[in-house]
Amino acid sequence: MTDSLFSQSTNDQRPLADRLRPATLDDVVGQQQLLAPDAPLRRMVERDRLVSSILWGPPGCGKTTLARLMAQIGDFEFESISAIFAGVADLKKLFEAARARRRDGRATLLFVDEIHRFNKSQQDSFLPVVEDGTIVLLGATTENPSFELNAALLSRCQVLVLERLDAGDLEELLQRAERVEGRELPLDAGARETICALADGDGRYLLNLAEQVWASAGTEPLTTDRLLKIVQRRRPVYDKGQDSHYNLISALHKSLRGSDADAALYWFERMLAGGEDPNYIARRLTRFAVEDIGLADPNAMTHALNAWQVYERLGSPEGDLALANSVLYLATAPKSNAVYTAHKAGLSTAQKTGSLPPPKNILNAPTSLMKDIGYGANYQYDHDAEDGFSGQNFFPDGMNREQFYKPLERGFERDIHKRLEYWARLRARRQAGDQDSGGESS
How far is CA 205 from the centre of its chain? Predict the structure, then answer.
């Protein structure tokens, strides 16, 4: 079942992207991490040995082109399917044909576009034929294979990561297009930059834009404003359920943690432009306030919650501004993960110490029986102390005192740090006094 996508045609009316499709690996634009000397794909070519691989990268970066070129490595019968249209019956026919070829001493290379669209059982069906060498599998996906492909299938394949094309790569594509067309794109310098920016790293989309310009414009160079009236501006590549979603929220969170207000605002706006649910962003901002700021600025959590509430009442676009306020407040606030660290340490100790009861002196004694067995005995009411601090033990009997919370010398935690040091000194003096008096307390 040969895919006509890979067939060569001399029809000059073919789309520009098809006419510019590379004939050899040396013609490929970008992807030097795979094609440079000693890079994975280059080594396969030099050794004339193809292994099952997953091509992972954004749209328009050359996955299909590379698959077509990899088919030229070795002596393979080439088959191609799309997981969007193929089902179990199609796979069975392909595998049966591949087994028959193998008995005749011929190998089969199977290219599966959008392989992440196959469900778990369909992916599992590849395991025996890949394992025993009946087929060499080339799968293409725009989604993170770690999330979308079965671990068993992934372990039998090499993952080749393709990157979006950068500005230099896109400019090279435009120059190739101009050579093929025999004319320059009618764009001034600013518009030429803009058309590359609009492509957003997608080479195929860039060539489609170039075709639109040649079809709609005259010979006079277009400005950016005139260009934008001819071509369609598309929404940035962003899938709220997949890799770009997690990558951008990670970028926002780490920019906030790094106190880079401008970068944080940029990633926030990128998420909004991509169609992310502002309520999700508000939830993550609130999480950041409690995890990375904590008591260094006690107002941070309140500010994040208020911004969330304002958004819920106003909606977009007016409520977006409240979230932008929160982004900038959190980015410029003092940072501390002392509460987060204390929480983790306290939880760990609580899990290890099991069911140790509180010391009896701090337990209430609402019945006479409880009083008789020592509940509340020798409890020291802190407000009765001259400095409002008794220094008594509140940990379980027999358990050493631990310090989970260690405030940093930043923001409001600087004051908390001083308070805790003061109470530690008082506690040490009180405990020393108890020991000097034989353990009796006043």
Answer: 24
Q: What was the pLDDT predicted at 243?
A: 59
Tell me the average pLDDT across 401-420: 93
d(CA 53, CA 136): 8
DSSP letter, residue 27: G
Question: Rounded CA gap, 168 and 16, in Å?
Answer: 19
Name the DSSP class of 106.
-
CA pair distance 360, 193, nearest whole angstrom = 75
- Using one digit for the tens of pLDDT, what is the confidence trace for 89-125? 889 999 999 999 888 888 888 999 999 999 888 898 9
Nearest alpha-carbon partner for 197 in 229, 239, 228, 230 = 228
Model confidence at 262: pLDDT above 90: yes
Question: What is the pTM for the complete model shown?
Answer: 0.64
Pair of tokens at residue 112: 């599966």
What is the spatial distance between Cα 356 and Cα 393, in angstroms, rounded to a whole number? Answer: 14
pLDDT in tens, 427-436: 998 877 766 5
Phi, psi of 331 (to 5 degrees): -65, -35
Alpha carbon distances (Å) from 406 to 27, 210, 421: 58, 59, 10
Coil, strand or helix at 81: strand
Phi and psi dihedrals of 112, rounded to 5? -120, 110
d(CA 259, CA 267): 13
CA distance linking residue 278 with residue 285, whole number of Å: 10
Please tell me the predicted confidence (pLDDT) of residue 297.
96
Q: Determine the number of helices (DSSP H) and then strands (DSSP E) in the chain.
A: 21, 5
Measured on CA atoms in the order 34, 39, 42, 48, is the torsion positive or negative? negative
Q: Which of 277, 291, 289, 286 is nearest to 320 (CA)?
A: 277
Using DSSP, state whether 12 is helix, strand or coil.
Answer: coil
**Is the bond into 145 cis (omega within 30 degrees of 0)?**
no
